[in-house]
Amino acid sequence: MENFTYHRPHHATDAVKLMKAAKDGKFMSGGMTLLPAIKHGLASPSDIIDLGGLKHAGVAVSGSVVTIKAGTTHAAVADDAGLKKAIPGLSKLAGGIGDPHVRNCGTIGGSIANADPAADYPAAVVGLAATVHTDQRKIAGDKFFTGMFETALKPDEIITAVEFPMPKRSAYVKFPNPASLYAMVGVFVAELADGSVRVAVTGAGPSVFRVPDMEKALEKGFSPDSISGVTVKADDLNSDIHASSAYRAHLVNVLARRAVEQAK
Amino acid sequence: MSETGIGARVKRKEDHRFITGKGRYTDDINLKGQVYAYFVRSPHAHAEIKSINTAKAAKAPGVLGVFKGEDVAEDKIGGLICGWMIHSKDGSPMKAGPHPILAVGKVRYVGDHVAVVVAETREQAKAAAALVEVQYGVLPHNVDAAKAKSAKGQVHEVAPNNLVFNWSLGDEAATDAAFKKAAHVTRLEIVNNRLIPNAMEPRAAIGSYDTGDDHYTLYTTSQNPHVARLVISAFHGLAPEHKLRVIAPDVGGGFGSKIFIYAEEVVCLWASKRVGGRPVKWTAERTESFLADAHGRDHVTHAELAMDKDGKILAMKVNTIASMGAYLSTFASCVPTYLYATLLSGQYNIPSIYAEVDAVYTNTAPVDAYRGAGRPEATYVVERLVETAAREMRIDPAEFRRRNFITSFPHQTPVIMCYDAGDYNASLTKALELADYKGFPARKAEAAKRGKLRGIGFSNYIEACGIAPSAAVGSLGAGVGLWESAEVRVNPVGTVEILTGSHSHGQGHETTFAQLVSDRLGVSIDNVSIVHGDTDKVQFGMGTYGSRSGAVGMTAIAKALDKIEAKAKKVAAHVMEAAEGDVEFKDGSFSVKGTDKKMAFGEVALAAYVAHKFPTSEIEPGLKESAFHDPTNFTFPAGCHICEVEIDPDTGVTQIANWVAVDDFGSVINPMIVEGQVHGGIVQGVGQALTEGCVYDSGSGQLLTGSYMDYCMPRAADVPSFKLAFTETKCPSNPLGMKGCGEAGAIAAPAAVINAITDAVGVKDLPMPATSQVVWNALQPMKKAAE
Ligand SMILES: Cc1cc2nc3c(=O)[nH]c(=O)nc-3n(C[C@H](O)[C@H](O)[C@H](O)COP(=O)(O)OP(=O)(O)OC[C@H]3O[C@@H](n4cnc5c(N)ncnc54)[C@H](O)[C@@H]3O)c2cc1C
To answer: Tell me, what CATH number does A46's domain have?
Structure first.
């Protein structure tokens, strides 16, 4: 582990200034991803700019929109009573991330900024057609994740909140990697307010993706049977010691059906 | 039974210390002037070391020294040894390649210890280690046991075809003849998956050289500190035994992996002298534990079982390739031989058995004893064969076992072991009852309605514990005897200190050993302390592994207690002015037959030390005795585990629905501790069966399962609440009748799980760990056939 300079600004503008001034700065929220990376020598930033001082935390349900500030921990999201009613699928997703330690430190902003292909939140951001708010602009959920560990964020851009439109019904079903408990495959299914359906898959590919054939089938009839024959191609999916791409492709279908069944 | 005596469910005395964070582990100890070691490890599976440039590292901040193999050689420090000689079938000795404590000329696995940096702080040592420049010439490698003999690269010069030995046991001709008469032969190709031990406490060491006395002290995470001292003294040649003290304080789990003498601890000791006597500490990072702790299992086996038309077993034939990793670890060679093939008779009357074992080098971490050591591998072979044979012959698997059980004792198997006592029918019958075996078809049908596949599997394991009679192991190649020692010190006020050569690293000796004393002397366990793990305090002892601390270690204590009682009676007789033969000892007090004269144990102890009231010319003052116990036989714990699983055919996920374990451990000192051992053992075995598998990448030789992100330890949610019960046949070879319980669960569990899964899925075999992917794969051909 290399030495670094630690900062804890109180305003986003200061955070950005610090970042611009740093040789190789990194924002930090919960540190659950960043700190292990530093300890393993996979990242060695010159400066750590802790966003904890920005007090970007809290879940707000208003009208047809749920806004979760970037610094809200997974545990706080999972425990929020308003969210449990508004988008139970999202609440359950947050409660199923990692373990209690991780949920008490890790944040939604850190999670989506990191864009781990096996992270859970990306499925909800895309599956619910959410909008990512930053200190500079708003980014549509569909445009946010650009690849494995890659996002549309600029290096000095700070996520401030994620805005989720309330769906008619939704559910998230995760098949955890038995060792890491990250998603080996996770499927978020939502019927949005306008009646359109989204099926977003995480863990299976290099980055979160939608399954248009399933979405179309479900728009015709929102039932598990509508998609029992709709498969995703294994060729583009991840394959590792835990799961082959064929197995992952199969799980996408199983989990999607289960999510449709559980959607509320 | 007294409140704290034998058989009582006493809460563990040591747990207060452990759960309040007051345990004193090696890494908790900090000596004055202590500095830190960090190891440079090989990034390659197999490579020639062309050069090591330490110049930059040596100049880095805080660095006191950077050492490599040449420096070790300069001081004539010997390499690591394997303490059990195995001879091949052709009579030739095993091919032990050199294993220097810092690599010389070559590295042989990813994680091999190449050089060491000693610096003021851990961070400085680590940072400087990154500056050591090693030039490697990469050589062809092989990580696969099955391919070792034909691999391109040769791991050790002394071992052509990477063959360490080709060993056999049993009568080949008789076995072949029996197979010719068979009505049915069952065949299986079995892989016993490689495991990484994962003790909660990573290995650690502090080596400290005292320049004043020319004396060394080693704090280390060891299961057997005296053996470590002996080896470091006799083979590494660091210092004679009286100039070397080895302390293994609280040790946080071993499972075998801390039996062995490792390079790092020897390096810390040696380096301490090199840096002018400053104590050198090393604590493994978890990544190092994955890379460089001795791994377990890793067998590839072809096994055959011959039956007559009624399902009576006629003979067994087993051919195993056992990976030893890149070097022979301390006891590696006895694991796939005398701890494995000698148990192939299982609980069954098998007239002839022939086993052949090829031990091979691969470019992987050394493989050695891991909870069960050879016996889980044997049980897996036997119980998979038996279950498969029963299914193939359409005989109920319980009935098949019954037909073949050994029922009279002693029973001499064709593979060395002589079983002394057991009742295999009793444990099977009880297990069938507890598992409601009769109700299984109904449960299966009910599960099918829910779309689930339900299966049931047995494992009737046997193990050889209480390791071991010294002459017997000596004749089989062991470099040491396997007796145990004890000293009982009664203090003047009647409290008792037990010094034992056993070592506790989670087993609860501070409680169970005290229970024995409480039972025998009538003192409360609060008045008994157990001293272990320090060669300066405790007489030579052999340590803890192979479920030996009860059967061997406690027997030594019991023998010393006999002597204490005899001496105390003499003292009591004098003080009470009675004939020695009239003194009785019961419930902690001495009384004179036919009178109301009585002395409490504490009073007699005081009298022994005050020494006013007896002639010290006839009876020496004091009350302290010692004993060494060498067992006359192994002990043979056995039992029946029944596992019931439910599989989700959509995902391949296996859920363990029910688990029954009926074990015969002989007499039980503390049922709560024994149950804990069984629970832990089963979970470890379930880990092997369902989640744990060490994977090296064949292309790169890298360890792919090098962290908890990829190596899956079982969690509480992976197992149900176990139903445990005991049957009891006393062990005739020790006075307490104990057999040992530490490894049973890990030995029994894998076969029970895989037998249950293969039953549910309807396949002959599938590999461990049977992850959801593996089970799902197994289901696909059937799904296709059904379509
Ligand atoms: C044991 C373990 C298990 C886990 N299991 C799961 C799981 O099951 N599912 C899952 O989804 N995740 C899992 N995680 C990851 C967890 O959710 C992390 O908390 C999350 O990925 C990162 O959040 P963080 O707040 O800790 O971010 P940090 O570690 O602080 O930062 C992560 C990255 O995001 C950047 N960043 C942080 N905040 C912002 C911001 N506001 N704006 C811009 N960039 C920012 C940082 O610069 C850094 O590059 C697990 C982690 C661990 C350690």
So the answer is: 3.30.43.10
Q: How far apart are CA B747 and CA A186, in angstroms?
A: 36
Of A8, A97, A154, A172, the residue with max ligand 1 atoms within 8 A of its CB, to mutate for a pocket test, comes to: A97
Q: Please tell me whether residues A16 and A98 are part of one structural domain.
A: no
Region B144-173: mean pLDDT is 98
* A128 and A232 part of one domain: yes
Contacting B with CB below 8 Å, chain A residues are 1, 40, 175, 178-180, 182, 241-244, 247, 250-251, 254
Which residue of chain B has the CA closest to A252? B651
pLDDT tens track, chain A, 264 positions: 788 999 999 999 999 999 999 999 999 999 999 999 998 889 999 999 999 999 899 999 999 999 999 999 999 999 999 999 999 999 999 999 999 999 999 999 999 999 999 999 999 999 999 999 999 999 999 999 999 999 999 999 999 999 999 999 999 999 999 999 999 999 999 999 999 999 999 999 999 999 999 999 999 999 999 999 999 999 999 999 999 999 999 999 999 999 999 999
**Helix H segments across B722-763?**
744-761
Give the span between the Cα atoms of B400 and B43, in whole angstroms: 51
ipTM: 0.95
Same domain, A45 and A123: no
- Could you tell me if B280 and B308 are in contact, meaning their C-beta atoms sit under 8 angstroms apart? no
Q: How many CA atoms lie within 13 A of A122 on its CB side?
A: 33
Model pTM? Answer: 0.97
Write out the H or E segment, with its range, that includes residue B411.
Answer: strand B411-412
Shared domain for A74 and A121, answered yes or no, is yes
Exposed / middle / buried, residue B3 (Cβ in 10 Å: 0-12, 13-18, 19+): exposed
Structural domains of chain B ordered from first start: 31-139+200-253+258-292 (3.90.1170.50), 299-467+633-786 (3.30.365.10), 483-629 (3.30.365.10)
Q: Please say whether the dihedral angle defined by the alpha carbons of residues A187, A188, A189 and A195, taken in this order, is positive or negative.
A: negative
Q: Which of A34, A55, A120, A144 to mutate to test the pocket of ligand 1 (most atoms within 8 A of CB)?
A: A34
How many independent structural domains does chain A possess? 2
Which residue range forms the structural domain that includes residue A16? Answer: 5-51
- Give yes or no for residue A112 CB within 6 A of ligand 1: no
Return the CATH number at A133.
3.30.465.10
* Residue of A29, A145, A153 best suited for mutating to test ligand 1, as the one with most atoms within 8 Å of CB: A29
A136 plus A227 within the same structural domain: yes
Distance CA B678, CA B669 (A): 14
Instruction: Please enumerate, as own/partner, the contacts of B404-413 that have beta carbons within 8 Å and a separation of 24 or more.
Output: B404/B311, B404/B312, B404/B313, B404/B348, B404/B349, B404/B350, B405/B347, B405/B348, B405/B349, B406/B345, B406/B347, B406/B348, B406/B349, B407/B349, B411/B349, B413/B342, B413/B345, B413/B350, B413/B353
Ligand 1 atom with the smallest distance to the CA of A35 is 29
The two structure tokens encoding residue B157: 């010069």
Indicate if A185 and A150 belong to the same structural domain: yes
Does ligand 1 have an atom closer than 6 angstroms to the CB of A211? no
Which chain A residue lies closest to B776 (C-alpha atoms)? Answer: A247
Q: Which residue from A minimizes the CA distance to B123?
A: A1
Structure tokens at B484: 């145990």
- How many angstroms does the Cα of residue A32 sit away from the middle of ligand 1? 5
Nearest CA in chain B to A179: B712
Q: Contact A243/B708, CB-based, under 8 Å? A: no
Of B695, B713, B776, Cβ closest to residue A247: B776
- Assess whether A35 and A111 both reside in one domain: no
A1 contacts B710? CB cut-off 8 A:
no
Of B650, B710, B771, Cβ closest to residue A254: B650
Q: Is the CB of A49 under 6 A from ligand 1?
A: no
